[in-house]
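Section 3.1: Structural characterization of target chains.
Under the original work plan, the team committed to producing a structural model for every single-chain target entering the pipeline before any wet-lab resources were allocated. The record below documents one such target. The sequence was received from the expression subgroup and is listed exactly as submitted; it comprises 309 residues.
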Amino acid sequence: MPDTANRTALLQIHFCVLLWGITAILGKLITLPALALVWWRMLLVVAALALLPRVWRGLSALTPRLAWGYCGVGVLVALHWLTFYGAIKLANASVAATCIALAPVFTSVIEPWVAKRPFQPRELFFGVAVLPGVAMVVGGVPDGMRLGVMVGAASALLVAVFGSLNKRLVSHADPLTVTALELGAGTLALMLLAPLLPFLLPVLSGPLLVLPSLHDALLLLLLSLACTLLPFALALVALRRLSAYTVQLVTNLEPVYAIVLAALFLQEQRELTPMFYLGVAIILAAVFLHPLLGRWKPVPAGTSPQEHL
């Protein structure tokens, strides 16, 4: 029976990654600006988690220092989502998903510094290996989308930063409690940041307190509950059966799922050139080969799944 349980867990994690891939498609379909979209997504998830007594028990058990640490990570999560959905609005879902594939490259540089471990030359090699792919991706998109590529790369950098910090902090508290605190802090941070964005980052500015239409409201519920909380719960179950290495390999499929779904439902392949997809292939090849050759484990079991989209 263990083999059956492992196969079930593998299917569960694939389903989680598929749901994370769908978030890019929903980001394109929701007509709200990126700022309002991210604020509503975080608010709805926090509201759902606030209904769980387990979350409140976990919050009461946190030390002030640890709670502030999670709040700081939550601000980074909010900025990551803001730049990710900003990249979708400025370019498209395929471009944003491709940029997120750069996150492991940034992590290979940032995590040794955060975790205070020696830097591995092999990681530098794979970081350099993706550069031709990045150049092809930039050359394969219309001029009007290149700002979206830059914003998407910033989003990937933020993933690397808050992901590395989360790996140090997440084991000190209940994952659902961590998620509620981080996303709650991110929700408040966006409210404080909104008046400053026109001066700091005008391309990501926009109205915050926008009442969504019925169409957008339904898609926001799908994004928040089906593509955030549901895969979070399933990933926690799957992590009990699968190695961190297996989970990382499957997670690397997230941009693949997003690009395929964008072609099927949004016809985005009409906006992009073969050079773009060749660049995507080079980036993904480096992302997959890194753990295959090095057998590193960048996602420890129990890592909070909000590191993913």
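The longest helix spans residues 2-29.
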